[in-house]
UniProtKB/TrEMBL annotation:
Name of the protein in its database record: Cilia- and flagella-associated protein 91
Record's keyword terms, sorted: Cell projection, Cytoplasm, Cytoskeleton
Coiled-coil ranges per UniProt: none
Subcellular locations according to the entry: Cytoplasm, Cytoskeleton, Cilium axoneme
Similarity field: Belongs to the CFAP91 family.
Domain of life assignment: Eukaryota
Gene expressing this chain: Maats1
Main location: cytoplasm
Residue ranges annotated for the CFAP91 domain, each copy included: 4-156
Length: 261
């Protein structure tokens, strides 16, 4: 019912598949030795490309076995002709492999370029969006400034249109006191009014509050009922019940009185 965990798991300790030692008898060439260059992860397990290589090795071995012996000039010429044909065939196969590799590389380059172009397009789009947002904010701020200036100019034009001919108007005192934004209630500093200079103008100045004689006279006018208070002590509550026991509140009052003393 208990499980154990070793220091090394089987998956971590597993290496390449074991290849036992072998002995080749003289005069024999096993076909499996042609795959000695393939290792696990590099050609094994065999795929379509490896199977094509194995078929080509078999064809080459069959071709080598079919070569004529070099015992006569005709056989030598025939052998050279077959070898030249095989060499041209191998060069053609090699060129085909190079074309396949180049096509694969081109596809990889295309994907990399496409990915780089997509990333660059995203960066350009983000940069353009940020610039557009900044231009929009600047445009909105400019529009608000134009609207404020427009409102200011309209108010000036409206105020100016009330007196187109520039005639002198007689002062209307009732109108000034009726308008709380007039010079009567809110005079401007440029007309010579400085409110800080007369800051104590609105302060309360009273004879009875600012002088000792006034305070004495104010105390004399106050009736005795206000200065001499009479407080009646409250009657003690009944702390004893009808049966003669002391209530809990009464006991608490006694304890508090003792603590106060």
């Amino acid at each position: 019912t208990l499980g154990t965990q070793t220091d090394y798991r089987d998956g971590e300790a597993q290496t390449d598949p074991y290849s036992p030692e072998y002995i080749v008898h003289s005069g024999s060439v096993p076909e499996i030795l042609t795959l000695a260059t393939l290792t696990w992860g590099r050609g094994l397990p065999a795929g379509q490309a490896e199977m094509e290589i194995i078929d080509r090795i078999r064809e080459k071995r069959a071709w080598e076995a079919a070569l004529p012996p070099m015992d006569s000039p005709s056989n030598i010429a025939k052998r050279l002709k077959m070898m030249e044909a095989m060499e041209r065939k191998e060069w053609a196969y090699r060129e085909e492999e190079i074309d396949k590799l180049q096509k694969i590389q081109l596809e990889v380059f295309k994907k990399l370029l496409q990915r780089r172009e997509e990333n660059q397009n995203e960066l350009d789009a983000m940069r353009l969006y940020n610039q557009w947002q900044n231009h929009q904010k600047a445009k909105e701020e400019k529009i608000r400034k134009i609207q404020r200036d427009c409102a200011l100019m309209l108010r000036k034009l409206i105020a100016k249109s009330k007196n187109l001919m520039g005639k002198l108007e007689r002062r209307d005192i009732i109108k000034e006191y009726n308008d709380f934004s007039s010079q009567t209630y809110a005079p401007l500093s440029r007309t010579g009014f400085f409110p800080d200079n007369n800051s104590d103008y609105y302060a309360v100045k009273n004879f009875y509050l600012n002088t000792f004689a006034g305070l004495c006279e104010l105390e004399k006018s106050v009736p005795d009922a206000i200065s001499q208070l009479k407080i009646k002590a409250p009657k003690p509550k009944c702390t004893i019940t009808k049966t003669g026991y002391i209530k809990k509140s009464g006991r608490l009052d006694a304890v508090l009185a003792q603590v106060h003393q």
